UniProtKB/TrEMBL annotation:
Protein name: Cytochrome B561
TM stretches of this protein: 41-61, 73-94, 114-136
Cofactor(s) essential for the protein: heme b
Organism whose genome encodes this protein: Burkholderia singularis
Membrane topology: Multi-pass membrane protein
UniProt keywords, alphabetically: Cell membrane, Electron transport, Heme, Iron, Membrane, Metal-binding, Transmembrane, Transmembrane helix, Transport
Family: Belongs to the cytochrome b561 family.
Compartment(s) where it occurs, according to its Swiss-Prot or TrEMBL record: Cell membrane
GO cellular component: plasma membrane
UniProt main location, coarse: membrane
Record-linked Pfam families: Ni_hydr_CYTB (PF01292)
Boundaries of every Cytochrome b561 bacterial/Ni-hydrogenase domain copy: 35-205
GO biological process: one example: respiratory electron transport chain
Gene Ontology molecular function terms on file: electron transfer activity; heme binding; metal ion binding
Length: 208
């Protein structure tokens, strides 16, 4: 009988301990209400660099010939691309190790799927666009010297045909990114000021 009571007490103690640990870990791993400061900083820094990269891209291609100003803009454009590529990798790694805030509870399933799809494509393009630009420079036998200080390796041999293909891909991907960014911004504005579900405030906490 004493042994039976001992087993019951031990079982009760284990059950209580298990419930306590479950509640402890579930509360500790609860989804955050906003993105981390690191995620926010990476988001807006990459966004700013992308805007600058777009502006330089249009500006430099409108300048006829190969003036010193045009060559300078090309260098800046390449530096921005390399920086965006590195920051995009950092952002992917951060996202993989930090739980993002959940979507609003009332958001329809199709909007959730669309948001996840747009985010995934944005990550792909943030890597693919700099990669095609860098490979284009290699195929065109144009060196890339990061910040004018660090020569980057040429990954492929000069190839006129491949150069044309990579240039076309780089331009097309940029237009795709422009369309996705426009959709991303429009959706964020809609959710913040029409749906009023606080989506944008997760990335801009001062909007709360």
């Amino acid at each position: 009988m004493n042994a039976l009571h001992g087993y019951e007490r031990a079982g009760a103690a284990l059950r209580i301990t298990g419930e306590f640990m479950t509640s402890l870990f579930s509360s500790a791993s609860a989804p955050p209400v906003a993105y981390t400061r690191t995620a926010i900083a990476l988001h807006w820094l990459i966004a700013l660099l992308i805007v600058c990269g777009f502006a330089l891209g249009w500006l430099m291609t409108d300048i006829p010939g190969f003036t010193p100003a045009k060559l300078k803009y090309y260098s800046w454009h390449k530096w921005i691309g390399v920086t965006v590529f590195a920051l995009a990798i950092a952002r992917v790694l951060w996202r993989a190790t930090h739980v993002p805030p959940p979507m609003p509870a009332g958001m329809p399933a199709w909007q959730r799927a669309g948001a996840h799809g747009v985010h995934a494509l944005l990550y792909v393009l943030m890597l693919a666009i700099p990669a095609t630009g860098y490979l284009y420079s290699s195929a065109a036998n144009i060196p890339v010297v990061y910040l004018g200080l660090v020569p980057l390796p040429r990954l492929i041999d000069p190839d006129p045909a491949l150069k044309a293909t990579l240039k076309a891909a780089h331009v097309a991907l940029n237009y795709g990114l422009l369309a996705l960014v426009a959709a991303h911004v429009a959706a964020a504005v809609k959710h913040q000021w029409l749906d009023r579900d606080g989506v944008l405030s997760r990335m801009l906490p001062f909007l709360k």
